[in-house]
Structure prediction request, 337 residues.
Amino acid sequence: MPKVTIDDIEIEVPDGTTILQAARMIGGEVVPPAMCYHSKLKTSGGYCRTCIVKVEKGSEKDPRPMPKPVPSCRTTVMDGMVVRNKTAPDIVEARAGIVEFLLINHPLDCPVCDQAGECDLQDLAYEHGKSHSRYDFQRRTFEKIDIGEHIKLHMTRCILCYRCVKTAEQITDGRVHGVIYRGDAAEISTYIQNVIDNDFSGNVIDVCPVGALTDRTFRFKSRVWFTKPVDAHRDCPKCSGQVRLWEKGGEVLRVTARKDKYGEVESFICNECRYDKKNASDWVIEGPSKVDRHSVIGANHYENSVLSATDDRQQTGLPHGKKVELGEGALNPNNIY
Ligand code: SF4
Ligand code: FES
Prediction:
């Protein structure tokens, strides 16, 4: 099994592991950001370049460094490879340049975007972006369009990561959208006015790393940090039925797939679970979702308060609106995941 050293931490990984996967095995600061790679989608990655790293030593056999930064999601580990991510100032600077490129056309409309608070580009821009743009030319803008009953496409925000295209290709039958044109004319489009209309189409919303594809049933209902994410499941004949409910004031505002700590979908869900089951009584509540403690979504969410709310709901059969007493330790910040 090859050994790789990333930011001075050595790990042994199975053959065929990419640098990004190896970094995720180590975890923490070592892990490069990824906007287009998605662990559940085959052939994803290689488009956005946010995951670039420096390969200081190619391998034990051929120790020459790689001449340029490489995308970690598409580069396989070799035995003896030495990689730098956060510890290479030139990589941090190059990544800031990539963020600047991504923001050439992407509007900074976070205050009115439904994805704010769970947007990978917002996080990246916060970490690496500059407060002004050096771009003087006219930006690409598009009219928003509805693709089907449930999905809104705001192409101006799209970063052409291809995740939605691969999702539609790999988990639905009869893909009816894709990327048309090339270069700076490229855009996501349905062809011949088709709508995206099949049982799993809603998953394109969950994989979109920005606010280009949003859930029309949730748009402008609430800022995401005012909602409480709760894990729940039901016996669904079409999908795993394992979802995340986003509730506010006792009302389920949206249903999404569960995502892991890298913002990637754990298991894809069907449209019936997503759009037609918006009562808490449709679900078996498991408890509060694990929210990264640095995420804005975790603000003011305390494990005990959410748990007691869901327990009450289960016991009384009253789905909504129960006043919650904060339990002992509820204000302990350690209770935030
Ligand atoms: S719409 Fe979203 S998921 Fe699809 S390519 Fe654009 S940014 Fe990626
Ligand atoms: S995540 Fe590797 S190129 Fe986009």
